[in-house]
Design brief:
Layout (H helix, E strand, L loop, with lengths): L3 H7 L1 E2 L2 E2 L2 H23 L3 E9 L4 H11 L6 E8 L6 E8 L2 H7 L3 H10 L3 E10 L14
Antiparallel strand pairs: 1-2, 3-5, 3-6, 4-5
Helix pairs in contact: 3-5
C-alpha cells in the first residue's frame, strides 16, 4: 500500500485505484477551469463617448451618414447617436465594441472610410470625451434585465 504522500501521485483515491489516464484527464480538467475564467475576464469590451459639433444646419446630414456607416460592423455591440438638447449643432456618439481591436479594424473598412471623408467637411469640432471599458448594459453580452 502506498504512503499517503504517494496516493495522489499514483492515482489512488481511498481504497480504489483510478486509472492513470482518467486521473490525468481529471487533472487537466481542473487546471483548465481557472484558465477558462481568465480568458473570459481577459476579453474586455471597449467603448467610446464622443461629442461631434457640426456646421450650422448639418446635424441631420451627419446623423444620416453615421446611420449608413454603422450597420453590420463586426464586433460592434452598440452604436448610439443622440442629438444634444442644448446645442442644435451637436451630436453624441456612444459606442461599445467587443474589443478595441474590433473598433480599430472598423476604421479601415471602405464604408467607414467613406463616411469619414463625407463627414469631415461638415464637422466643426470632434471631441472624444472618454474611452471606456463597459461592464454592463441592456442588450450587451452577459446583461439580463431584472
Amino acid at each position: 500500500m502506498p504512503t499517503d504522500g504517494n496516493r495522489l501521485a499514483r492515482g489512488y483515491t481511498g481504497k480504489s485505484q483510478m486509472k492513470r489516464r482518467t486521473f490525468l484527464e481529471y487533472l487537466v480538467g481542473v487546471a483548465l477551469v481557472p484558465l477558462q475564467a481568465l480568458s473570459q475576464e481577459a476579453k474586455v469590451m471597449w467603448g467610446s463617448i464622443a461629442k461631434i459639433t457640426l456646421l450650422p444646419g448639418k446635424r441631420g446630414e451627419m446623423i444620416a451618414i453615421l446611420k449608413e456607416s454603422a450597420a453590420d460592423m463586426p464586433g460592434c455591440l452598440s452604436y448610439v447617436v443622440a442629438k444634444d438638447v442644448a446645442d442644435e449643432n451637436a451630436i453624441w456618439v456612444t459606442e461599445v465594441w467587443d474589443s478595441k481591436s474590433s473598433h480599430d479594424a472598423s476604421l479601415s473598412s471602405p464604408v467607414v472610410k467613406s463616411a469619414m471623408s463625407r463627414g469631415k467637411p461638415i464637422i466643426s469640432n470632434f471631441e472624444q470625451i472618454a474611452e471606456t471599458n463597459p461592464v454592463w448594459g441592456l442588450g450587451l453580452p452577459g446583461a439580463k434585465a431584472s
